[in-house]
Amino acid sequence: MAGLWLWCGCLAVLAALGTWLARGYALRRQLLDHPGERRSHQVATPRGGGMAIVLALLAACLWAIGWSPAARPWLVGVMAGLGLVAGIGWWDDHRPLSARLRLGVHAVASLWLGWLVWRASGEAWMGALTALAAVVLINVWNFMDGINGLAASQAALAAAGFACWLPDPWSWAGWALVAGCLGFLPFNFPRARIFLGDGGSGALGYALAALLGLCLARGGSPGSLWLPLGVFLVDAGFTLAARMLSGQRWWEPHAQHVYQALARRFGHTVVTLAYACFGIVAIVLFFRLQEVQPGWEAAGSIVWLLAASTVWLLLRKGLRKF
Length: 322
Prior knowledge:
The protein has helices at about 1-30, 50-65, 70-95, 100-120, 125-145, 150-165, 170-185, 195-215, 230-245, 260-265, 270-290, 295-320; strands at about 30-35, 45. It is an all-alpha fold. It has one domain (about 1-320). α4 packs parallel to α8 and α6 packs antiparallel against α7.
């Protein structure tokens, strides 16, 4: 156990150092997110700090390859997909790309991850579900970047939930993501000195999809595995559905998420902490549902979804004037 914490500490320090260097680079290159109607911050803020988390994750994978040669095909495959998603996002941070090109690259990386899970598990449906999850999570985490500490803290909580569920030695994969996020967070919360950027936020979503696929391959139930990710999925999913139903250009940046309205009303820190509390409740429920029969597990997940949806609808209605 002491070795695990030392290893995580080293990854966190690596991510922190990388974030510090990324901030200096962004300031020199003027890679800044400027305030606007579709932004949730008030001052120009550097972007691209999430690439430090990518660096920590790649370092963790290289270490794991040396420690467990049998896992080499899976790890090399995940590294390739992660590099593809982070790379197209990093390019977009420097020179905006078309949504079609970005989504195309995301789809290729997601299908690749799905194939890896299919190969590891022997179940085609697990691969298909992982590929779908990857496309969704890449874009959800990209949408949610822009509130101080929100995207990184939610990724860390979800990764911790998966890490606690995964059996040894695979739990290291979740703790690696937790460590990377913790190294980044001091630069992003409570005051944002740098944001994740498209490369970092997309990579977080992809890494979480890889953890989800790993949990599926290790016998996790799809009926409740989504719960650690549920806070973001509810807000992003229902907001997206509302925009599509109203005929808006849903693929464009906007400021209509509930978390954005809450941030305008109460400030970034309160929102990030409130979402963290909600996420912890979802993770606790996730573990409780592992102890019941499949029917009760599905029922518990549905009840949580209905409760979260009700909260979202009430908040959206009450905050429309802000």
